[in-house]
Every structure is written in C-alpha cells, then in structure tokens.
Amino acid sequence: MKLYLNGKFMRSRKPFLIFWPQYFDVKRSRSNGRRLPRKFAIEKVNLEEIVNAAKNLGYTAEIERNYRYSRTWWDDPGRILVDAKGKKKAKVLIEIAKELRKSHSKT
C-alpha cells in the first residue's frame, strides 16, 4: 500500500514494530519510557547494538535517525524498525533485551 502525505510518498510501517532505545535503558523509570522489567534492562545501549541484537535473532531491522521519542524529545534521536514476522511487540522486546544482555556480558 502506498501512502502519501503532503504529496510525498511515505513508506507503510504496518509490518514493522518500532523500538526506541529508551525502552531498554535501566536508568529510566517506566514513566520516562522504560518498557522492560529492570532485570532485562541494559545500561548504555545504542541504536546499532539493538539492530545487531535483532539481526542475531533473525529479524529484519533498520535504523531511522530523524525521529525523537516523545517522552524524552530532548534525547538523542533515532528509533529502530523491526520486522517481527507477526510476533507480539512485548515478546520481541524481551528477546532483544536478552540478546543485548548476552552481548554486554561478553565485553
């Protein structure tokens, strides 16, 4: 499906889930954007690490840098689009968080 906004073509986001780095940040409260229980959250996570974790799990993922999370609009920009192949967002979020913890424990 092609979407147009103000005469410009917009890519449909339907098969993709949107993830913000703030979802994974252990230093944030739930009201400031963390979506995971503290035991799954990570300190100092960046966009590239999240994309690599998603790709390691077999998902298609890409970074969009020109967007800001509305709860913390002053923070660094960027979000991740993940094609989760029909899985629920909460399940994919925890899978990616576990993969990130594995990669953080290796370094």
- Percentage of residues assigned to helices: 25-40%
**CATH-assigned homologous superfamily:** Signal recognition particle, SRP19-like subunit
**Top-tier CATH class:** Alpha Beta
Distance between the first and last residues' Cα: 43 Å
| Residues in β-strands, percent | 15-25%
Which secondary-structure class do the elements indicate? alpha+beta
Shape: globular
Strand-and-helix sequence, N→C? EEEHEEH
Spatially, the strands of the biggest sheet line up as 3-5-4
Biggest sheet architecture? 3 strands, antiparallel
Helical segment count: 2
Please indicate the count of domains. Answer: 1
DSSP summary, beta strand count:
5
| Assembly of the depicted chains | single chain
Reported by name, the CATH topology is: Phenylalanyl-tRNA Synthetase, Chain B, domain 1
Flag low-confidence runs. 1-6
Q: In the CATH classification, which architecture applies?
A: 2-Layer Sandwich
Mean pLDDT: 84
**Rg:** 14 Å
Any overview of this molecule?
The longest helix is centred in the last third of the chain and has 18 residues. The chain is of the alpha+beta class and 107 residues long. The chain is 26% helix and 19% strand. Strands 3-5-4 form a three-stranded antiparallel beta sheet, covered by helices on one side. The chain has one domain: Signal recognition particle, SRP19-like subunit (Phenylalanyl-tRNA Synthetase, Chain B, domain 1, 2-Layer Sandwich). It contains two helices and five strands; from the N terminus they run βββαββα.
